[in-house]
Design brief:
Arc Repressor Mutant, subunit A; 3 domains; single chain; alpha+beta; 15 strands
């Protein structure tokens, strides 16, 4: 797919999880709000209204710039970016252009470093709702200004990506970083990516407003294929802005690509210069939360789990938080295995995540403690986790007793069951002795059936081999 020279850059817009908007006191929580409810003269740009900067948004943006190894200027100011579009009632957006809050940063992937050109703060436009069609075919367009003025952080990367895999790795790492910084809420916030793509040194095409890693992957795949086909048939790729249609999996042309000069940036006269003093920056650094890679190093030292385990856990903020709480009461290696493989696997099968599922942590710990103490088998523990993911109300210890799921720990009892299984399945025994070694799995299945799945499979297999080899 990527045999030709490919250059990909990203412009990522992250909604900061502040309680109020960037330049006014309107609420950013529109979950239960009617359209155009959380608005005021300031975020609507009515005459006479004056913006006032949200200090919390500034601090959160600076945390992100620090996490991306950016340098800070001595002072910042805001500009007006002029464009006439229904989602921007002022006909300009208050943003940063000349002096961003952070620049010249970097993000380390497994095998290469990605340059971060800039991190800046800006206000979100309103939301357009296309009724009865797509962005191109809708008969009516509604506008909800609840989103207008919500604080965004824009991260602009260098065009250093040369594969879809690198883009996915970066976005996954960035989301983990944002959650560890506690500046982004994935349940109520959004991350939108503009993707700049060019092949073989050709013109740059921008694909606007792509939501989610999967959608970014599909948009890049389609756009690369389209550009390659254009080159094959001798057509020139023009510099343009395109829209990704997630339903169709295609990109469609919106307009020819504008340059920064087309926006007519001017200094925002209603906001002053803001000094970023050494004391202010020092305070931000002092209160920086632990980042994923720092947490990974600590997990290696503190919990003695493998690097691959620590890496997987720390890439998922909620999983890392859950692991730390569980590992206080259950062996860390056991917790690591069961959380990152069994729990996450069951959630994925159910199309859920740790964000959307409501796992009862106390019951989860009880289930893992039963396994750790040898009272239940791994099969039973998985059954308990499935019930937890399903949201069933039960006590793990009581359920195990009621359903007679306690592991067969009595050696004499298990020995008798195994010998009975051998007596009752002489053909399988004969097959094993004649070289059909897979017959042992049938015999193990019979033992598990007799014990109701309460025997430890490892012990059953070991004892079966001993008895079969002695016959």
């Amino acid at each position: 797919m990527l045999s030709v020279k490919v250059k990909i850059g990203l412009e990522i817009h992250v909604q900061l999880n502040t309680k109020s908007k960037l330049f006014c006191s309107c609420s950013t929580n529109s979950e239960n709000s009617k359209p155009n409810k959380n608005i005021c003269p300031t975020c609507m740009g009515l005459p006479g209204s004056k913006p006032a900067l949200n200090k919390e948004a500034l601090k959160k943006a600076m945390r992100l710039a620090l996490a991306l190894n950016c340098s800070f200027p001595k002072a910042i100011f805001f500009s007006r970016k002029s464009y006439f579009y229904p989602d921007m009632p002022k006909n300009f957006q208050i943003t940063q252009y000349e002096i961003p809050i952070g620049k010249n940063g970097s993000y380390q992937l497994k095998n290469k470093k990605i340059g971060i050109w800039r991190v800046h703060i800006e206000e979100d436009p309103g939301k357009l709702i296309h009724k009865g069609g797509t962005i191109k075919t809708a008969q009516n367009v509604l506008i909800d200004y609840n989103r207008a003025g919500i604080p965004l952080c824009e991260i602009v990367t260098a065009p250093d990506f040369s594969s879809i895999e690198e883009v996915k790795e970066f976005l996954s790492g960035l989301i983990s970083t944002l959650e560890h910084l506690r500046i982004y809420d994935p349940l109520n916030g959004s991350i939108r990516s503009d993707i700049n793509i060019s092949i073989m040194g050709g013109s740059r095409v921008e694909v606007k407003n792509v939501n989610g890693i999967k959608a970014v992957e599909h948009a890049i795949k389609y756009e690369l294929s389209r550009q390659k086909n254009m080159v094959k048939i001798g057509k020139k790729i023009k510099m343009e802005t395109r829209h990704f249609d997630a339903d169709m999996g295609t990109t469609v042309s919106l307009r020819t690509k504008e340059t920064e000069e087309d926006y007519g940036y001017i200094f925002e006269p209603d906001l002053t210069w803001i000094d970023l003093t050494k004391e202010f920056i020092s305070d931000i650094k002092k209160n920086m939360p632990e980042l994923p890679k720092e947490r990974e190093k600590r997990f290696l030292k503190q919990y003695k789990i493998s690097r691959s385990e620590a890496s997987v856990i720390c890439m998922n903020f909620r999983l890392a938080e859950l692991f730390e709480r569980v590992a206080k009461q259950v062996d860390a290696k056991l917790a690591s295995k069961w959380l990152r493989t069994v729990l996450i696997g069951v959630l994925a099968y159910k199309n859920l995540s740790l964000r959307t599922a409501h796992i009862d942590e106390k019951k989860l710990i009880k289930a893992l403690k039963l396994l750790e103490s040898g009272e239940i088998t791994e099969k039973t523990c998985k059954e308990l986790i499935i019930k937890l993911v399903n949201g069933e109300k039960f006590d793990p210890a009581n359920y195990v007793v009621e359903k007679r799921l306690k592991k067969v720990a009595d050696k004499k009892e298990l020995e008798k069951v195994i010998k009975d299984a051998l007596k009752e399945n002489k053909k399988a025994v004969s097959d094993y002795k004649s070289g059909q070694k897979e017959a042992i799995h049938y015999l193990a299945g019979q033992v598990m059936k007799k014990t109701g799945g309460r025997a430890e499979m490892r012990i059953v297999m070991e004892r079966l081999k001993e008895l079969l080899n002695s016959i």
